[in-house]
Design goal:
The protein has 358 residues and is α/β, with parallel strands linked by helices. It is built from twelve helices and 15 strands. Helix 6 (185-196) links the parallel strand 8 and strand 9 (200-205). Helix 5 (153-165) crosses helix 6, helix 5 (153-165) packs across helix 11 (304-317) and helix 8 packs parallel to helix 9 (255-264). It is globular. 50% of the residues are buried.
Length: 358
């Protein structure tokens, strides 16, 4: 028998998340030709999980019950008759937009219109011990990673990869300067990837303890934004050669941080919009980019092809994705949601999924 969490409604995660035990394991007949039965060993959470459980949702209502979360890693148990890419015993990580891949291919980039069909929102996700996934919802896992760090790649690390390497001619590398904000999942993933690529990384954060951790992961400089809340971008920019500004700024705060992100970027640099976890403040007009002579790029996650590229790069560079100090068990997933909402975590909130009967 298996275990799982479902979103039974959208009244906030406290009211909507329900834990189910003794769930029947699907039979091979239920796989369909393109299905893959996976034993999941770990999952991780993104801020989207909080939003999907909220009455407003990410992009309208869901059709409950739905198994939440899109990040996970596990091992293939059984494959459907038409599955080509996997065999039983393969280690895999999930890709969040399988329906987009099925219609448009591995290189397709998701938009908000694709969100209602993604894992954990329109298709059952990863907060379960065993489940069926479409073939295109999976890629091979890095050989060098254990389950917990592997389970962080699907959304967070694919987003970071896309931010740094998704624009031809502007990929992060030696001689480039990258600015990341805070110590959440995307920011830490971007830091680790950019440092591995030879770029110089500046990270903003709120405490001396986090500054030390970010430096240990590869940040050359850190800036405490709490001590200079209205001018951290100027401080960060002053660290670049001649104060010219950053080649890439990865903005996770949305309207609260965007003005300072624009102030930090160099002429013809890239400001990458990947989140909106900051406070709800007045919108920053797109015309602000005109005043800073830069390019602004919004993105949702990464394509399946980019996730495959990321997997190869992690093995090549022997990168070990940072995860939070606290590891939750599957039955404690609601506590994991609380830790994420309260922003008590460092990098990624992770959930271990044990299989005592294995």
């Amino acid at each position: 028998m298996s275990r799982q969490w479902i979103l039974a409604s959208q009244e906030g995660f406290e009211a909507s998340l329900q834990y189910q035990e003794n769930v029947r394991i699907p039979s091979q007949d239920e796989l369909g030709s393109n299905g893959v039965l996976v034993k999941i060993h770990a999952a991780s959470l993104n801020y989207r999980e909080l939003s999907i459980a909220d009455p407003k949702g990410v992009n309208g209502p869901i059709q409950p019950p739905i198994i939440p979360a899109c990040d996970g890693a596990g091992v293939v148990l059984v494959i459907g008759s038409s599955v080509q890419e996997f065999q039983p015993g393969d280690r895999v990580v999930t890709h969040s937009a399988p329906k987009l891949v099925e219609s448009s291919g591995d290189n397709a980039s998701a938009t908000l219109a694709d969100a209602p069909f993604m894992l954990g929102q329109g298709t059952d996700g990863t907060l379960r011990s065993i489940g069926i996934f479409a073939e295109k919802a999976l890629v091979h896992a890095p050989a060098s990673l254990s389950w917990l760090p592997a389970a962080t790649l699907s959304c967070t690390w694919a987003t970071a990869w896309n931010a740094l390497f998704g624009v031809e001619g502007r990929k992060a590398g030696p001689g480039m300067w990258v600015l990341v904000q805070g110590s959440g999942g995307v920011s830490v993933a971007t830091l680790q990837l950019a440092a591995a690529a030879g770029a110089t990384v500046v990270a903003t954060t709120s405490t001396g303890e986090k500054e030390a951790r970010l430096r240990a992961l590869g940040a050359t400089h850190t800036v405490n934004y709490r001590s200079i809340p209205d001018s951290w971008s100027q401080k960060a920019r002053s660290l670049t050669p001649g104060g010219i500004g950053f080649d890439i700024v990865v903005d996770i705060g949305g309207n609260q941080t965007l003005s300072q992100s624009l102030a930090a970027v160099r002429v013809d640099g890239l400001v990458i919009l990947v989140g909106a976890v900051g406070e709800d403040t007045a919108p920053v007009p797109l015309s602000a980019a005109f005043m800073h002579t830069c390019m602004v790029r919004g993105l949702l996650c990464g394509s399946r092809a980019q996730l495959k590229q990321l997997v190869r790069y992690i093995d090549e560079k022997d990168i070990q994705p940072a995860v939070d100090d606290v590891v939750f068990e599957l039955a404690e997933a609601k506590d994991a949601y609380r830790r994420l909402k309260e922003k008590k975590h460092f990098s990624k909130v992770v959930i271990r999924i044990e299989h005592p009967d294995a």
